[in-house]
Design a protein that fits this description.
Layout: H1 3-46, H2 48-72, E1 75-76, E2 79-80, H3 83-116, H4 120-132, H5 136-147, H6 151-182, H7 186-194, H8 197-238, H9 244-254, H10 260-276, H11 280-306, H12 314-328, H13 330-348, H14 354-360
Antiparallel strand pairs: 1-2
Helix pairs in contact: 2-3, 2-6, 3-6, 4-5, 4-10, 7-8, 8-9, 8-11, 8-13, 9-10, 10-11, 12-13, 13-14
Length: about 375
């Protein structure tokens, strides 16, 4: 045995101890990560009412923050609009709009619940007629299956959820009011929190990038959803169908859910048309026209207006919809894309989390080409040597 072989055999126990220490550290890290994720998931579920209201308030605040800054710089002769006055005007506008929309939604839901009970038998007969096209025996089976469903219970639950909307709106308004009150000292608090002016500025630019993309996404979605709702209202009015107003509002709301929302809205419109008209061909025509409108606005106009603002993976959107829908229900599906955009931008500026941003992005490029935000350096724990 050569001296070199003796040295290797002597060094082998120390290397084994070092490797076991590193493996133990990695195992502890994974174990603590699983525990932390479980605790965060538990808190997300338990405090979802407050957290959903907080996220909506942050989005509404970010939508109006830049407008307030622009208005505060305006001058009318020798008189200048103060920041305080612009903030109060924006807060009042948000409160009035939210309360008005809540009242409209609650009234429409109550009208739909009341009227739907009278259309229950017609709806069952319409669905059974479709089953009869497949086979005569299927008509009786489908009708018996549908009648076994407690429709009134689901409608009562829907009305109860709509009544909770007013309390959620009040909480959102309170959150927005406190955010407006704190916005003047945000930069100072950020500098004191970071203990570094340069790092605070980098974080501020990251926040501004998130706000810019989310605002652009919401503005485009609002315009496309409003146009689709007007088209649905005109279509149902042209065919003399009832529920034109509620279906337009429902279409407007569902179109905020990417991919899935437009499909659900089109199917519901086809079902409503099938219930009200005796000829299935007419209901099919309404369904086809609504589908064409949804396709043109959602698959052609929407991506054209969205441009490079979103840049998120389609598969990532579906995963985000599934996750936040499971955690927060229907409100989580509405907030899934803004949360995903924010997570992608934050991860893209953290070196250790950049692979997550690459996976969430559409082309593997989570940043704009003209972004000048430098990555935020973070101190990571090192394994014991």
């Amino acid at each position: 045995m050569t001296p070199h072989d003796l040295e290797q055999s002597a060094a082998q126990p120390g290397q084994t101890d070092s490797l076991s220490l590193v493996e133990r550290y990695r195992l502890q890290t994974w174990f603590l990560g699983i525990i932390a994720f479980s605790m965060i998931l538990f808190l997300l579920v338990q405090a979802r009412f407050i957290l959903i209201s907080l996220v909506i308030a942050i989005i509404l605040f970010s939508l109006t923050a830049d407008a307030i800054t622009a208005f505060s710089r305006l001058r009318i002769g020798s008189w200048k609009i103060t920041n305080w006055l612009a903030s109060m005007a924006a807060f009042t506008l948000i409160a009035v709009v939210l309360l008005t929309l809540s009242a409209i939604v609650i009234s429409q839901v109550n009208a739909v619940v009341t009227t739907t009970l009278t259309y229950t038998d017609q709806a069952i007969a319409a669905v059974a007629r479709l089953a009869a096209l497949y086979s005569p025996e299927a008509e009786a089976t489908v009708e018996a299956s549908i009648r076994s469903i407690e429709v009134s219970g689901y409608l009562s639950a829907l009305a109860g959820q709509a009544s909770n909307l007013l309390s959620a709106t009040t909480l959102v308004i309170l959150f927005v009011g406190f955010m407006f009150a704190e916005r003047l000292w945000f930069n100072t608090k950020l500098e004191n929190l970071m203990h570094d002016r340069a790092k605070a500025q980098r974080v501020g630019r990251i926040i501004h990038s998130i706000v810019r993309r989310v605002n652009h996404y919401l503005l485009v979605k609002t315009g496309v959803s409003a146009t689709t709702a007007v088209a649905v209202y005109a279509l149902m009015t042209a065919f003399g169908l009832e529920f034109a107003g509620p279906m337009a509002i429902l279409t407007f709301i569902l179109n905020y859910i990417p991919s899935v929302g437009s499909i659900i809205a089109t199917i519901l419109l086809g079902v409503v048309a099938l219930i009200q008209v005796p000829e299935p061909a007419t209901a099919l025509l309404v369904f086809v026209i609504a589908g064409m409108v949804q396709f043109m606005l959602g698959s052609v106009i929407d991506p054209m207006l969205m441009g490079r603002a979103l840049r998120v993976s389609s598969f990532g959107i579906i995963v985000s919809l599934s996750f936040w829908g499971a955690v927060w229900g229907i409100p989580g599906m509405f907030l899934a894309v803004p949360i995903m955009v924010a997570a992608m931008i934050v991860c893209s500026h953290i070196p250790s989390a950049r692979p997550v941003a690459v996976l969430l992005s559409r082309e593997g490029l989570p940043e704009y080409e003209d972004d000048e935000i430098e990555p935020v350096a973070m101190e990571l724990p090192r394994a014991a040597e």
